[in-house]
Design brief:
24% strand, 777 residues, 18 helices, six-stranded mixed beta sheet, alpha+beta
Length: 777
């Protein structure tokens, strides 16, 4: 039997079609249960009391007033919270736990950042818990002024890539970037500044913890990965993995902040143990700014050397950002600069400064999003410097292979994305002269930028159970971020099993199901769809074995490799008339159901044959990473700028992506639109303000942390170029969750430059910066 997914080429196949969400009715009717909506018997409510200082020690904590309030069951602090087997407070514990943050609050009396949890109040109602939390009285001993960022004169910069002896380092170097830059006919140097960004998903972080027995735990968790959360809790609690069940049926957005197990989750679990009843804790909107990470404030400098005709000879990239007192997390901005263009010489270094802030974390397209802002604005500067079109400068420097590894691409449709995007956008109508196009009082500009995001190697498993009555249940412990996993996996399963979609029930979001990776890093669709497909193939292989051994089957004594399957029917490859349906075979064999398991791989661990089918004996493989794997695309933006008011409006948008096989044209389009809107927000308005004296946030709410609304966004055009990738996975699917944002801020900034002739390099491009640029002209 051929394992090549032939069903995708058949008329009427579900995969690729713009089908509506199978879970849509559940969501719009309110039947979909999110992690804070499970009404467990005896449910109690937890609320965090947090510190008012960013640095110091707890000298005295008085919980008596809170404990006396009606309905209060417990007030837990570092003095009485149940102990854990391990915490991330030391390097060994952090490694075992896989925690994003090297410090767990309520384990001691030291305060490291503002709004650090100092107590957890548990009460019979949310109102009682909220009120009691305000009555917790804490006296602090000051231990010096806090440091708010790398800009603080007291901040000490360090290089996390250097080893202790200083003789070797982990910096990225290729060729002689410094020498090539100094000798380049054209030399461009620019610095780009980025503020703090917070994720702000619609659903706050929430945990409902229930100890069903003294050593058996169920956690309803707002997480992008139930398996990762289960692993972290296993390490911290010191109980076997199979005794911890994590459930996430629906998620109200995550964008990266729900990709790890944060302190409030384990604190809720500890509280449930302490009170002997289920505890539900939902972070407040304000606490979302201090409890689940953020995109770090950062500055990056790009030195770009080129020949007189604009061919890049050198890129030197440096970055400085803020980190917490315990962790060295920093976005890897340099990776996209290293691979996006044909660059013989490259060098990247970065520095960190410890400050009194909580740990930053991955945020949609971590590294690639801010890195693309720097390189794509610099590419536009190069285009204007030598007087060529911005698309032309990118074509001249197009990388026909990955210069960072030397490997060929598994697939790359970037040139097609440029061409189709320019056609859809009307790029040919663009006046190449900056500041020359007006529409009444508005300056009009057009900009574009390249998008790319790597394939992160991943694997997962799925189970498919096919019933003789013609329905199937397919399972994987994946998470639906809200982007359509329920729907696209139902489509894959329906085609793979040859059933109507209404006969498929796809289940996810539970550690009792086969393991799957986090929904993050653009790995979920490629990994889980391949797992589902491979599980279906396992079902068919088992049925083929039954058929060829069954004297009453038309396929009796046929060799298994001579049999294929199409739309639920098994038949000979050379004679399609000889075959039967799976239902007839199963009923005759008195089989009520049959189960298959499959492992899907995404990336260089996926073994391929010459035609891209799962590997068989003697086939070539990509398990050694013989190919570089990325999604690619291009964004095109038109803006209208009012120089009197400093306002920037995006008036037209086109995105064209090359991302392998698209599982659902409608949900994929929506995902690209959502990511582009995310990027427009980061370009024009999003910014978290941290007070430089007290290291506290001054706009920790959605009234003052501005995000785009409908009026800020025009109609958006999204297309996908047809692309076949035979190396990436069994489905030929690439991720699209991150690439949607990469390059967006640069496309906006490049359009603003074209409109005004003024290059703005400090995000967000707020009216004050636009007006100041005009005044300084």
């Amino acid at each position: 039997m051929s394992a090549e997914p032939q069903f995708f080429d058949q008329p009427g196949g579900f995969v690729g079609q713009p089908l509506v969400r199978v879970e849509g009715r559940e969501k719009v009717t309110g039947r979909a249960k999110y992690s804070a909506e499970f009404p467990l018997p005896g449910l109690t409510y937890g609320v965090l009391a947090t510190s008012t200082v960013a640095k110091g020690k707890i000298q005295r904590i008085d919980t008596s007033a809170a404990a006396r309030e009606p309905g209060v069951i417990a007030v837990l602090t570092h003095q009485n919270l149940p102990k854990l087997a391990k915490t991330p407070n030391d390097a060994a514990g952090k490694k075992d736990i896989g925690a994003p943050m090297g410090f767990l609050p309520l384990t001691g009396d030291e305060i490291f950042y503002a709004a650090q949890p100092v107590a957890l109040v548990v009460a019979d109602t949310l109102d009682h818990a909220l009120h009691a939390a305000t009555l917790v009285q804490v006296t602090y001993q000051q231990t010096g002024a806090p440091i708010a960022s790398f800009l603080d004169p007291k901040a000490e910069l360090f290089d996390p890539q250097k080893v202790q002896d200083g003789k070797q380092d982990g910096h990225t170097r290729r060729g002689d970037a410094q020498g090539a830059f100094k000798s380049a006919p054209i030399q461009l140097t620019a610095t780009y500044n980025h503020p703090i960004y917070n994720h702000n998903p619609m659903e706050p972080g929430s945990t409902t913890a229930h100890w069903e027995a003294p050593d058996r735990l169920v956690v309803y968790e707002s997480t992008q990965g139930v398996t990762r959360t289960q692993s972290a809790l296993t390490a911290m609690l010191g109980i076997p993995r199979e005794q911890i069940r994590v459930i996430t049926k629906y998620l109200g957005g995550g964008f990266g902040c729900k990709g790890s197990c944060w302190p409030h989750t384990v604190l809720t679990v500890q509280a449930a143990k302490a009170v002997g009843r289920p505890v539900k804790l939902m972070l407040t909107r304000k606490q979302m700014f201090t409890s689940m990470g953020h995109r770090e404030d950062q500055t990056q400098t790009v030195q770009l050397g080129a020949t007189a005709d604009g061919r890049i000879t050198s890129i030197v990239h440096t970055k400085t950002s803020t980190t917490s007192p315990w962790d060295n997390y920093a976005e890897s901005n340099s990776k996209i600069l290293d691979m996006l263009y044909a660059t013989p010489n490259f060098e990247a270094t970065y520095q960190l400064a410890r400050a009194n802030v909580m740990t930053s974390t991955f945020m949609r397209a971590p590294g690639e999003a801010p890195g693309s802002f720097a390189i794509e604005c610099s590419m536009d500067d190069l285009a204007y410097k030598i007087g060529v079109d911005p698309i032309e400068i990118r074509l001249r420097n197009h990388a026909d292979h990955d210069y960072s590894t030397g490997h060929p691409w598994s697939s790359k449709s970037l040139k097609q994305c440029y061409a189709r995007g320019a056609e859809l956008f009307g790029w040919s109508k663009r006046n190449p002269q900056p500041g020359a196009t007006r529409d009444g009082r508005y300056l009009v500009g057009m900009g574009m930028a390249t998008a790319s995001y790597p394939v992160h190697n991943s694997q997962g498993t799925a189970r498919a159970r096919l019933y003789a009555d013609g329905h199937a249940v397919v399972q994987s412990g994946a998470t639906d971020l809200g982007t359509g996993t329920y729907t696209v996996m139902t489509q894959v399963a329906a085609d793979a099993l040859g059933l109507p979609m209404e006969k498929i029930r796809f289940e996810l979001g539970d550690t009792n199901l086969p393991t799957a990776p986090n929904s993050g890093g653009s790995v979920a669709a490629g990994t889980v769809s391949s797992s589902v497909y491979m599980a279906a193939q396992d079902v068919w292989q088992k049925l083929i074995k039954v058929a060829v051994a069954d004297k009453k089957s038309p396929l009796f004594k046929a060799k298994p490799e001579e049999v294929t399957v199409e739309k639920g029917r098994l038949f000979l490859k050379k004679d399609a008339s000889k075959g039967e349906s799976f239902a007839d075979l199963m009923k005759r064999s008195e089989m009520t159901d049959i189960e298959g398991m499959g492992q899907g791989k995404y990336g260089s661990g996926y073994e391929t044959g010459q035609s891209g089918s799962p590997a068989g004996p003697g086939n070539n493989t990509d398990s050694a990473g013989q190919h570089a794997m990325h999604s690619f695309g291009a964004h095109f933006c038109e803006v209208r700028v009012d120089m009197d008011l400093g306002t920037v409006r995006v008036s037209k948008w086109v995105s064209v992506m090359g991302a392998g096989r698209i599982l659902n044209a409608q949900t994929a389009r929506s995902q690209i639109i959502g990511g582009a809107i995310f990027g427009i927000g980061s370009a024009l308005m999003e910014e978290t303000i941290r007070d430089q004296h007290f290291s506290r946030y001054t706009n920790a709410d959605l009234a003052t942390y501005h995000v785009p609304v409908n009026a800020d966004i025009p109609d958006m055009t999204v297309e996908f170029v047809e692309e076949h990738d035979p190396f990436i996975n069994a489905m030929g699917v690439k991720g699209i969750g991150e690439i949607a944002m990469v390059g967006v801020a640069a496309a906006v900034a490049n359009a603003v430059y074209h409109a005004t002739g003024k290059r703005l390099r400090d995000l967000p491009l707020t009216p004050d910066k636009v007006m100041l640029a005009g005044l300084n002209s």
